[in-house]
Specification:
The protein is of the alpha/beta class and 227 residues long. The protein has two domains: 118 residues, Rossmann fold, CATH 3.40.50.2300; 99 residues, Arc Repressor Mutant, subunit A (Orthogonal Bundle). Helix content is 41%, strand content 23%. Helix 6 crosses helix 8.
Amino acid sequence: MKILIIEDDLSLINGLSFVIKKQGYELDIARTSCETEKIWHHGKYDLVILDVSLPDGSGFDICEKIRKTSNVPIIFLTAADEETDIIMGLDIGGDDYITKPFKLAVFLSKINAILRRSNNFNQSSYQLNSNGIIVHMLEGKVYKNEKQIDLTASEYKLLCLFMENPNIILSSEQILSKLWDCNENYVDGNTLTVYIRRLRAKIEDNPSNPKMIITIRRMGYKWNAEV
């Protein structure tokens, strides 16, 4: 598996490179937005680790560009720990948001967890079909009424989780435990709400009045397979 780190702090790059390569992952590094554009078109990556503040631009802008062509998992890595920044990072397509300073062991656990889950989903060889939504698990592609829908890695996993459990109420805790590490402090009900809202906007005919992903008050969410 190959990881792209987009970060301008040399000391942090050295530390991350050591622990990542020690795990057997291949690694490319870009220190600016300009370098990222050059590297991105020459390699295929399984994970992107992205700093928000770069010398020549914003990591948020890079994330939006990546999302136009790829659903590769993206981890934001930044000193900006304001809630609005975290929500923005997730809302534009990030899969995780880690604030500095952090422990390398915890950081590595998160990398392994995201890559493991992404690999498990990509290796699935069957198809999900419900409410005009078709998921080709082998290809990692989603279609609504025969038109392809672009989803982020987290949105894709969330949709698969719902469709694999039709008409079953899933609590927020159950969903988060399936898709993210339980010890991630920022992953809470508010964060899940962002993912649900984002997914509804892409699959529902009327996101403000959802018919597929139903909120069950005080209990959780349910995939309504009888729309």
